[in-house]
Amino acid sequence: MAEEIISRAQARKQGLPYYFSGIPCLNGHISKRVTSDCHCYPCKMEKKQKWAKENPEKKRFQKAQSYLRNREKCLESFKRYRQNNLASFRARNNKRKAIKRFNGGVHTAKDVASIYKAQKGKCAYCREKVGSAYHVDHIIALANGGTNERCNIQVLCAPCNLRKGRKDPIDYARSQGMLL
Q1: pTM confidence score
Q2: Does residue 69 lie within any of the structural domains?
Q3: Is it the case that residue 2 has pLDDT exceeding 80?
Q4: How does pLDDT run across 84-96, given as a tens digit for each residue?
Q5: Considering only Cβ atoms within 10 Å of each terminal Cβ, which end of the chain, N or C, has fewer?
Q6: Count of the separate structural domains present in the chain
Q7: Are residues 55 and 95 in the same domain?
Q8: Position 2 in a domain
Q9: Is the pLDDT of residue 1 over 60?
Q10: Host domain of residue 26
C-alpha cells in the first residue's frame, strides 16, 4: 500500500502527526516522517529504543511521571471504556477468575447477550426485569468447582445474586420457596 505524498506544511495545516515526502532519510529509509520535527519515523524509533535500553531506570521513571500527570485522564478513559464495553469486561473478569481457580471454560459477551434475551431480560429466580443493571451469575459457583462455560451462566438481579452467593442452586431455590 503506497502512501500519499504530502508536504510537511500540508500535514501541519491538516493537523496530521506524520507526513510522507517520498525522499529517503540520511539512513536510506523511505517512510513517513514526524511532522513536528521532520525526523524519519524508523530512525526516531531506533533512537528511542536505544535510549530506553541504555537508561532503563529513567524510562520507568518517565512512564510513572507520565501516568501521574495524566492520572485523571487515564481513569476517565478507563471508566468510559468499561461503560461502553461492560459485557465484554464482565466476561473477561469471569475468565480471569476461572483461570485463577483452574476451573476452565469460556463465555463471551455474545453468550451473555443471548442468555439475557432467552430469559427475556428477567432475573432467573425472582422473574423481575433487570434492565442493564444485571449480574452474570455462575449457576454452580466457581468457588464450588463450577465452570466458566455458557451452560453454567445465568442472568440475575443484584439482590438475588448477592443473596445466592456461592450457594448450591438447588439449596438456594429451596430457601426461596421455589422447590420442595
Answers
A1: 0.54
A2: no
A3: no
A4: 888 888 888 888 8
A5: N
A6: 2
A7: no
A8: no
A9: no
A10: 8-59
